[in-house]
Write a structure and sequence with these properties.
The chain is elongated. By secondary structure, the protein is mostly beta strands. A hairpin with a 4-residue loop joins strand 8 (123-126) and strand 9 (131-140). The chain has a 6-stranded antiparallel barrel with strand order 1-2-6-5-3-7. Strands 11-10-9-8-13-12 form a 6-stranded mixed β-sheet, with no helix packed on it. It has helices at residues 31-34, 45-55, 88-92, 116-119, and strands spanning 4-14, 19-24, 37-41, 59-60, 63-74, 77-82, 98-102, 123-126, 131-140, 145-151, 156-160, 166-170, 175-178. 13% of the residues lie in helices and 44% in strands.
Length: 185
């Protein structure tokens, strides 16, 4: 299981006071109002961390630690102001960086709910015991989610996340059990 969750991505500068537009990737955008700090990281995080150490920013093993001073929303974006970042030039270096929170700050789940991050990479087995592959992604479509299964042969299989198809989700034991309805394979 993952120890942190991505909740957004800094997409651009907002205004002249060093605010950032954040594309929210969390199911609960309002969570930004309750946060005190986030970890900013990118796929090239080593590069950003080296720069952060030169400029004196607080860093930890999870990236650059940014403290939130205010959050408001504009359209579908969170507008975040971080302490110590006061100009567009200062926030610009964070564009493209992902914002993460520790698992302890994750949204509380109800019975039968799971964090998508905990399902990625799980083996997918059929009710007949056949291993289909691993969970590559889960994405919303409006009516229901779709599970993308990466097959051993490199192909992808799309499965609807409905009770007739997804029989058991068990991240603790490490598997997703499915029933292949006619026409899915």
């Amino acid at each position: 299981m993952t120890d942190k969750f991505r909740i957004g991505v800094i997409s651009s500068v907002h205004g002249i006071r060093g605010e950032a537009k954040v594309f929210v990737t969390s199911d609960e955008p309002e969570r930004f109002r309750r946060l005190k700090q986030v970890h900013a990281q990118s796929p090239e995080s080593a590069l950003h961390l080296k720069g952060a150490k030169r400029t004196g920013e607080r860093t930890d093993r999870d990236g650059v630690l940014l403290e939130l001073s205010s959050v408001h929303f504009f359209k579908r974006m969170a507008i975040c102001k971080f302490k110590g970042i006061d100009t567009p030039e200062e926030i610009r270096k964070y564009i493209g960086m992902e914002l993460w929170v520790p698992r302890e700050e994750g949204i509380r789940l109800r019975k039968g709910e799971f964090y998508v991050a905990d399902l990625i990479g799980l083996p997918v087995i059929t009710d007949a015991g056949e291993t289909l592959g691993t969970v590559k992604s889960i994405w919303p479509t409006g009516a229901n989610e779709i599970v993308t299964v990466q097959r051993k042969n490199g192909e992808e299989l799309l499965l609807p996340y409905i009770k007739d198809c997804i029989l058991e989700v068990n991240p603790e034991e490490g598997f997703l059990k499915v029933h292949l309805m006619e026409g899915l394979l």
